[in-house]
Write a structure and sequence with these properties.
Length: 444
């Protein structure tokens, strides 16, 4: 195939792939990217084209100008370049025509594939994992978040360090070239490994602090409710709607990275602690769950999960499956949950519905539609988890009696010989606390 014919095909992909004709005058200092995705006949879940659209959203969130996109159907992965050599040539022509500075692949690339592609295309090549980690580095604000991002980035970088010293091979070899390059490479590897060890130790300390905070919250007799869901499903907007919090809300992927805890008032006068967590996404970077384990521990210890889904997204069902897969990795798939179908205000009138199956709630966090019903469902689900306790303690323990009335449902109260005998329905946390604090259990 001639270069001109390849350019014609590349031009077609540029015009069909980009949302609007690319104008280089609109770059304003941002990197210009070509997005590359793949699809296969036996693929399940989110399709290659849909995943490529999501990659565009990630790139734009990272501040990259998307100039064109290319989608390649593959039957097998090329060990050298992931995609075939013919497609690499097409992408090279497209990148040249659009003056692209980076090619972003939707699939994870091995260090060798990344190196080979960069050499052939003559521009920087990154994959989805590296792009997501870059977004995380922009979004992390807490100490723990920054440490977790750096840990994940260094784990990604370590096997790719060889690329950093390729320029030495262009010096022509000989004395004074190969040796120092190898020495410097080993120095860098050692520094990265040393830094990784320091980060892991620091994260253990931070995790201990987080665990201490978690234990302090456990002392408070309020159940924990965690918001989980695909990125940009509206969790932070719902957090603000339910608790009047000031969580950052943006129509961007991974707008929230650091978890936030707020108090949620329930209809029966009780309370719960609501936690906003980082959103999940298809093709999470390798090691993400491990690096963010202490943060995601909030999900594992929750009494109830609110699985928020963007009901207006055509890929809502596929995104739901992605979240469920991550929850299984966290061993939180058996935690009681409510499926929250959000953003119904974006649906056409004839597609909207306020009805839902058991365990589901249809809402719009932006307008408030259905939110009162959701709060009722939260209260109902938490009530289902309550335990019946029967206690006997001195009548002087008015504080304990008041707590049982405030945070539980007292079924029976009787005074016997200066003691109070109480039968009440309380949360699992409160049940454990009162049993520890009461020295005289009631006789059964």
């Amino acid at each position: 195939m001639s270069r001109n014919s390849r350019r014609t095909r590349g031009e077609s992909e540029k015009n069909n792939g980009a949302d609007a004709p690319f104008n280089s005058t609109n770059v304003n200092g941002h990197e210009v990217a070509i997005l590359v995705g793949t699809s296969s006949r036996d693929a399940e879940g989110i399709s290659g084209a849909e995943s490529l659209e999501e990659l565009q959203g990630l790139a734009e969130t990272a501040g990259v100008v998307v100039a064109g996109k290319a989608l390649q159907a593959i039957q097998r992965i090329s060990p050298a370049t992931y995609i075939g050599s013919g497609k690499v040539d097409e992408i090279g022509d497209l990148a040249h025509d659009l003056k692209a500075t980076v090619a972003i692949f939707d699939d994870p690339l091995s260090p060798a594939q990344q190196r080979n592609l960069s050499e052939t295309l003559k521009i920087k090549v990154i994959d989805r994992s590296q792009l997501i980690l870059d977004i995380f580095s922009q979004r992390a604000h807490s100490l723990e978040g920054k440490l977790q991002v750096e840990l994940a980035q260094l784990q990604y970088l370590l096997p790719r360090l060889t690329r950093q010293w390729e320029h030495l091979s262009r010096l022509g070899g000989g004395v004074g070239t190969r040796g120092p390059g190898e020495t410097q490479l080993e120095v860098d590897r050692r520094r990265v490994r040393t830094r990784l060890g320091a980060l892991r130790r620091r994260l253990i300390e931070v995790a201990r602090t987080r665990d201490l905070h978690r234990r302090k919250r456990a002392i408070v007799p309020y159940p924990m409710v965690a918001l989980v869901g695909y990125t940009n499903s509206g969790k932070s907007t719902l957090m603000n709607r339910l608790t009047a919090a000031d969580t950052l809300v943006e129509d961007k992927l991974f707008a929230t990275l650091d978890p936030m805890v707020r108090r949620l008032s329930l209809p029966n006068g009780g309370c719960a602690l609501l936690i906003d967590t980082v959103g999940f996404i298809n093709k999470l970077p390798h090691g993400f769950v491990d690096a963010f384990k202490s943060t995601l521990e909030e999900v594992r210890t929750a009494d109830l999960l609110l699985h928020v889904i963007d009901a207006s997204n055509p890929q809502a069902e596929e995104q739901k499956l992605v979240v469920e897969k991550v929850l299984r990795e966290l061993e939180a798939d058996n935690t009681p949950s409510v499926l929250v179908l959000n953003k119904v205000d974006r649906l056409p009138r004839d597609q909207r519905t306020t009805s839902a199956r058991e365990g589901e709630c249809v809402i719009s966090a932006r307008t408030g539609e259905g939110v009162d019903r959701l709060i009722d469902m939260i209260a109902e689900r938490l009530k289902e988890q309550r335990q019946q306790v029967r206690l006997r303690f001195p009548a002087s323990r008015g504080d304990l009696l008041a707590q049982l009335y405030r945070d539980g449902t007292v079924l029976h109260e009787e005074y016997i010989d200066g003691d109070v005998e109480i039968t009440a329905l309380v949360s699992r946390k409160l049940a454990g606390q009162v049993r520890k604090s009461v020295a005289i259990p009631a006789n059964h």
